[in-house]
Amino acid sequence: MPDGLGLAALLASFALYLGVLGASGTVLATRVFRLQNTRNIALWFAALGGLAALLGFSIKGAELTGSVSGLYDTEMLGLLWGTPVGTALRLCLFGLSTLIIGHFLGHVGAWISLVGSLIAISSFTQIGHIAGLENLLLQLALLVHLFAVAFWIGILIPLKRAASNPKNYEDAATLGHRFGKVATFTVPLLIVLGVMMGYQLIGSWSGVFTTSYGQVLLIKIAFVALLLGLAALNKRRYVPQLKAGDPSSAQGLVRSISLEWLVIVSVLALTAFLTTNVTLPA
Fold it and tell me: Rounded to whole angstroms, how far apart are CA atoms 5 and 101?
């Protein structure tokens, strides 16, 4: 079990994933599907991500000093600023700031926000287990993988909001159908890249079952499988029924999206646990 600082690092990492991926995914989904009234969603996620990034940076200082005073030890944090941890913080904050600014610049701002989301997500390639391998191909795979995850997260709130309002059932059906078509390509990519990165990190298939990292990864995979099942249920049942004019399917779609959120939160929490409290197999 993690100690106090380990738990704090875990919570900060979880909030960072949720904030950055939520903000970036909202921007991406808004751009792809021409969504309306998503600015506040992106801004709230971006604020969460920025605060979590700052907190995580300070916690890293405390972990290095072995004392809570490291949270505000300017000398230690100054040294940390020049490491990849500092680079990740700068990229994250600059990306999220660019994402936020873009929301106030009209049509061209949508592209600026998209660039900001790319910069913010790229911060994850600077730290963590993938960064430790110093493999450019794996870092690129991680970047694409995270963008696919962000896109999935970004569609959930707008889709649930539309399916919760009888006046927007038609929009919800159309949006769900369009997302299902995109997911046909993105989900296999998500799975392939995830498997490839997991294998490279563990080093062998047997390690999946015999190491702590592999065992936590298996739990994460089980949650991802559940998430895929819910997505398939939406694509095959609720969205087609709603598109055919069955209003009762909207409630099923809303419940399914709520469950997707719970599963996504679990997956992000497990990812944070893997990156902060579990070491790679030797």
Answer: 33
**Quick one: which H or E segment has residue 278?**
none
Contacts for 106 with CB less than 8 Å, ≥ 6 apart: none
CA–CA separation, 92 and 128 (whole Å): 14
How many Å apart are CA 278 and CA 282, to the nearest integer? 12
Dist. CA 79–CA 232, nearest whole Å: 48
Distances (CA, A) of 128 to 137, 204, 241: 15, 19, 43
pLDDT tens string 143-175: 988 999 999 999 999 999 999 999 999 999 999
Q: Which two tokens stand for residue 42?
A: 């992106």
For every residue of the chain, which 3-state class applies, written as one string? CCCHHHHHHHHHHHHHHHHHHHHHHHHHHHHHHCCCCCHHHHHHHHHHHHHHHHHHHHHHHHHHHCCHHHHCCHHHHHHHHCCHHHHHHHHHHHHHHHHHHHCCCHHHHHHHHHHHHHHHHHHHHCCCHHHHHCCHHHHHHHHHHHHHHHHHHHHHHHHHHHHCCHHHHHHHHHHHHHHHHHHHHHHHHHHHHHHHHHHHHHCCCCHHHHCHHHHHHHHHHHHHHHHHHHHHHHHHHHHHHHHCCCCHHHHHHHHHHHHHHHHHHHHHHHHHHHHHHCCCCC
pLDDT in tens, 23-74: 999 999 999 998 988 999 999 999 999 999 999 999 998 888 888 887 888 8
Q: Are 201 and 213 in contact (CB under 8 A)?
A: yes
Q: Which helix (H) or strand (E) holds 1?
A: none
d(CA 95, CA 99): 6
Task: State the sign of the Cα–Cα–Cα–Cα dihedral 185, 191, 195, 197.
Answer: positive
